[in-house]
Amino acid sequence: MTDAFTVDVPVRYRDLDPFDHVNNAVYATYLEVARVDYFEAVVDLSVEEFPFVIANLEIDYKQPIKQGDEPEVALWISSLRETSCTMEYEIRVDDDIAATAETTMVHVDSDSKRPSPIPDAVREPIVEYEGLEASA
Which residues of 120-129 are buried (b: 16+ CB within 10 A; e: fewer)? Predict the structure, then answer.
């Protein structure tokens, strides 16, 4: 991978807590916006056909995001396994990292609602975009 996939996310008034900082729970929404954009751009998957669920989410907060800031989310897939992948994120404001995060995304069969192998049509564009090894 040469550069991480990045998405600008606006700070909305409703995102703010009483201290005019973005509420900590909203960071997860910023990750979701970036994740959906990534899968639409890289894999051509729309949100309506999104076959992944979050099995784990971790966020490390480094500094507050405030009204007037213009955050961007950078993300990449660091590990691609048979039925899951690990996505890593940085929420950045200017040149500073406001938060880092990681999600474990599990591919789920729409009928059985159970983990299932990531199809080649999803796997191959990720491998190519990220420059990952092609093994499962």
Answer: eebbebbbeb
Dist. CA 128–CA 110, nearest whole Å: 25
Task: Convert 3-34 to b/e letters by CB count within 10 Å (16 or more is b).
Answer: ebbebebebeeebbeeeebbeeebbeebbbeb
Contacting residues for 27 by C-beta, under 8 A, at least 6 apart = 59, 61, 65, 91, 99, 101
Q: Say how far apart CA 53 and CA 45 lie, in whole Å.
A: 14
pLDDT tens for residues 96-116?
999 999 999 999 998 999 999
pLDDT tens per residue, range 17-37: 999 999 999 999 999 999 999
Beta bridge partners of 106: 53, 84
Distance (Å, whole) CA 86 – CA 77 = 6
Residues 6+ apart with CB under 8 A from 127: 80, 133, 134
d(CA 93, CA 8): 10
Mind listing the pLDDT tens digit for each residue in 55-86?
Answer: 999 999 999 999 999 999 999 999 999 999 99
